[in-house]
Design goal:
The chain is mostly helical and 228 residues long. The chain has 13 helices and no strands.
């Protein structure tokens, strides 16, 4: 397809390596002779985010569906007959969605290590409450602690991708929309990508809580499977 797509395998390898390293890092501080609730929350968040990013960045997978739901036409706005003519072909719209999916994937690669770093160093004041909380309690806590950090990472990444996009469909659309504000598009798209990331991490947390044995992690199985 284009340069963005060609970078995926190498970037995915980096993501997997990063996740494995981060997981080893938090594993080193596990307590002995009993369960560490703080460590359990860190592992829960690490495994949840690792699963979420792996699924989101899979070729032909989740991002394709999500970007279609986001709707690039809403992000770019309407510019009368110009935009209508560009978007009149269903094939063109499908290919343009793919191009935006590639941009979203690039942003998610940048977001992954930021989440991993936050999980490693985050201070968890009441881990017991998070263990006993609802199905997405840990994700909500992490999102609150990180505040707008993902947006700060995603917006410049997406803005740069829009400016230098190799896919001719992206270039044609942006150039045809006279007066388009790339920064505004990047902010809007980045905000929606941010929402998708947190929603997917939360979904993975919920799934792990429902079936902690799927992680094959003795600490998570012991803490989450104890029904505390």
């Amino acid at each position: 397809m284009n340069e963005l797509i060609e970078l995926r395998p190498a970037r995915r390898g980096f993501l997997v390596g990063l996740s494995a390293t981060a997981l080893l890092g938090v594993s080193a501080c596990a307590t002995t002779g009993g369960y560490s609730f703080t460590e359990a929350i860190r592992r829960l968040l690490m495994v949840s985010s690792e699963r979420a990013f792996a699924r989101m960045t899979a070729d032909g997978g989740f991002w394709d569906q999500q970007v279609a739901q986001i709707g690039f036409s809403d992000l770019l706005g309407t510019r009368g007959d110009v935009l209508s003519s560009i978007l009149s072909s269903s094939l063109f719209k499908s290919r343009l969605n793919d191009a935006f999916a590639g941009i979203a994937i690039e942003g998610s690669y940048r977001a992954a290590p930021v989440v991993a770093d936050a999980v490693r160093v985050i201070g968890i004041g009441n881990a017991v409450a998070l263990v006993r909380g609802g199905p997405t309690a840990a994700t909500s806590f992490l999102q609150s602690e990180m505040s707008g950090q993902l947006i700060e990472v995603l917006v410049p990444e997406i803005g740069d991708a829009l400016r230098v996009a190799q896919d001719p469909l992206v270039g044609q659309t942006l150039s045809a929309l006279t007066g388009v504000n790339v920064a505004q598009v990047a902010n809007s798209f980045g905000s929606r990508v941010n929402d998708v990331i947190w929603r997917e991490i939360a979904q993975e947390e919920s799934a792990i809580r429902a079936d902690p044995r799927s992680t094959r992690d003795p600490l998570l199985i012991g803490v989450l499977g104890a029904g505390l």
